[in-house]
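Re: duplicated header lines in exported structure tokens

Our pipeline writes sequence and tokens for each protein into one text file. With two proteins the header for the second block appears twice in some exports. Here is an export where it did not happen, for reference. First protein block:
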Amino acid sequence: MSTNNKEIFKNTPVDHEIHELIKNRWSPRTFSDKPVSHKELQVLFEAGRWAPSSNNIQPWNIVWGIKGSVAYDRIMSVLVEFNQNWAKNAPVLLLGVVDTKTPKGDDNYHAPHDLGQFAANMAIQAQSMGIAMHQMAGLDYEKARKEFKFPDTYHVATAIAVGYYGGELSDVPEKLQDAETGERSRKQQNDFVFNGDYRETGDVKE
């Protein structure tokens, strides 16, 4: 793996050929010192804006901050220490927040799924621009909700580090460096794709 502030590729051992934007996307903990502009963030948010959502409710909300700003420091303050140790490398930090209620006041069980689609759209758009996104669950959800004054029905679901691929391996704690250089892996399709009942696997036939 190269860490010379240029585009970085990790080997992705796919079983079936997929689009290069998906194949080459990964979640680094090091980032180039090249800034991500406000305009580039608007492009990422626009990609997320056009994600599908249940009943077109669009329950997502995004909090963002550029490194050096008060908003960035506030987002950093709600991350767990483990993530603070490397997220400080990112030029941009985001929070993904969902309203857990529908406009009618019913529980919106689909809201986290919809936020996931928003983030996936952003991630593919970012990849097309040479920008990496590392999504993380390690944050104090209640502290974050209160810090940014969201109503009680809102849930801060994720934090996201954003920046151009690059940086130095020494930028991350030693115990995390293997993850930056290691082989990518995923479960096999038969572990999660079922042609009927749970665990009723079957190869897809052409």
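Second protein block, exported in the same file:
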Amino acid sequence: MNENLTKINSSFVSERINKIRFVEESQAQLEASNFISGSSEIKNNVKFWKLIKNEFADEIENEFIPKAVSKLTIEGEVTGLEKIDRFNFAISSGSSMTIVSINPGKNEMNKLRESASFKNLHKFKTGDSALCMGVSVFDENISTIGEDGKINVISANNQKVITTIDDTDSEIDWE
């Protein structure tokens, strides 16, 4: 048996996490020890987690446990979470899409911050808000899909909506 295996302990979390992505510490990193999560609760949170040494571990228990080190509260249930680059993530929630950044500072805790927000991306023809159901990232382009049947393409660099494709579902009349 390989003695160099890292043992990870599971942890109880008092919220419903429904999206999760690994975070790279560096380009040369071989093991994943950080991740970001999104929840769908009354207070919808995005959290940055680190695997930390379990100071209470013995020979039976595992060596590392996940610990949330930073939290950002956002509007609406997290419906999508995708990586843009090493420190930036696109998060769909409610009728919006938010770009969340991780501050990689060495002297302070890694902190999450909202670097851009695109509110009310999705609306029904009646003007009512529609949920942003998902997000996808390719290079610097971010696409969102909503329950209104629209696809929005956003530039992460310019932080502007490049194009909107209406009526992607031609079989349904939304009026």
